[in-house]
Amino acid sequence: MSDSEPKAGDQGGGSGPSGSDGGAGLTPGGELPAEAREIAAGYAFTGPALDLGALVWDGTSRPGAQIRIPLTMLNRHGLVAGATGTGKTKTLQLVAEQLSAQGVPVFLADVKGDLSGVSAPGQDGDRVRERAGQVGQEWTGTGFPCEFYALGGIGTGIPLRATVTSFGPVLLSKVLRLNQTQEQSLGLIFHYADQKGLELYDLKDLRAVVTFLTSPEGKSELKGIGGLSAATAGVILRSLTTFEAQGMGDFFGEPEYDTSELLRTASDGRGLVSVLELPAVQDKPQLFSTFLMWLLADLFQALPEVGDVEKPKLVFFFDEAHLLFKDASKAFLESITQTVRLIRSKGVGVFFVTQTPKDVPGDVLAQLGNRVQHALRAYTPDDQKALRATVKTFPNAAYDLEELLTSLGTGEAAVTVLSENGAPTPVAATRLRAPQSLMGPVAAEALDAAVRGSSLYGRYADAVDRESAYEKLRAAESAPAAAPAPAPASSRRAAPKEDESLVEQVVGSGVFKSLARSMGTQLGREISRSLFGTRRR
After folding, report:
1. Could you name the domain of life of the organism this protein comes from (predicted)?
2. Which domain holds residue 186?
3. Alpha-carbon distances, residue 225 vs 23, 195, 208, 233, 417 (angstroms)
């Protein structure tokens, strides 16, 4: 590179005026500088792609060099990172719009309450026109088809619930803040309930089972569950009681949300954007982050293997991802890693959204092939350490990445994605396009009308409390114990105690014989469980 050519380390951060680079972002000779041309060539894909924005070189936006993500690579997962206020939410909105336009459904978690605007056309203005001119974008205000959900109906949205038995012991342990030993014990309690046919639909069902196991009548049952002590069961019971007293019971129950609803397209062929409204539960981060993982785990279990596809079946944006990994058990982290690794072959792409890549465990980060890194701050020694760690996660770049990542402006990012042949593209400083939908929330009245007008509202609006473990155990308390029928003489010899299965121990108890009357054909049933101990459909 000659001395007259721009140097990579000279990358600027602010957004200059629309025509500041001669209208095409070129050198006086009519061409991009050699290193910039090399970067631009890495994004010249032949197939369908999402347009992120224009290359920035020497502090100037170059609309002739478009930075893109191949549609076929969206199931290779990704990371959107950056400090607060750098534009992560608008990046989610931009990508969601383009996925929807190409017929790909999208899931977004709206933690701050400002993503409902995806459903409404954006407002034209000087800033939008300026940004469009800088990046070579033909901007038109456009709204996209949306469904709005709320956890347990808390907030404005179609109520989204899961049954306790479907949620499983590993995920529930995360929200109850149980340690590893207690998590394993909770797994044994689920196993016990599964085999006895005690449906755990809501928290009172699980509390009833644990209460029974710690009662004088249930102590013999407790002894039959290896590794579960009365003391540990008591801790779990107290955690459940506290959790329920904090108003968490609404998130669990029926009707349970069918995650296949996330895969729908609108009547015009555009992908449906499913927005989970979380402002009303911002103070319950452990709960909503773990609930997002349940959605993903349930999709993983339900979807068939499809291998590589022309476009994803769904792209799932996992906002505030650091909350998911905070204080996570080893089993929990292993299950996340396995889910992310395998769900790609089911046509689902997952983007984790957080402040720095170090928020995501290395085994997960290694699977995120597409990166949109907004600016990082380096005010403290810890910030500087995080910055250096972030730089190490990028492929070799023509830029001084430490300087670049601290000088990016709002709405700018360092981008590297997987090309159509699966190889990483060169790192590109990018000025991102402006979303075409409303950059902010819609009016509360419009949001409420959209929720109540949905075809799903009637299906999920009202909670249902069917007969389950709570009712069955209460009925068993008041029913007289059934007298055991005498065994035939030929079968009176008891099997050795150590050879008895858990089912035999449970069925042999007097309390269970009483309980069996109300259980019918469900006696002896065991639910098949998969990752996170969640129920297989």
Report:
1. Bacteria
2. 164-251
3. 74, 12, 17, 11, 50
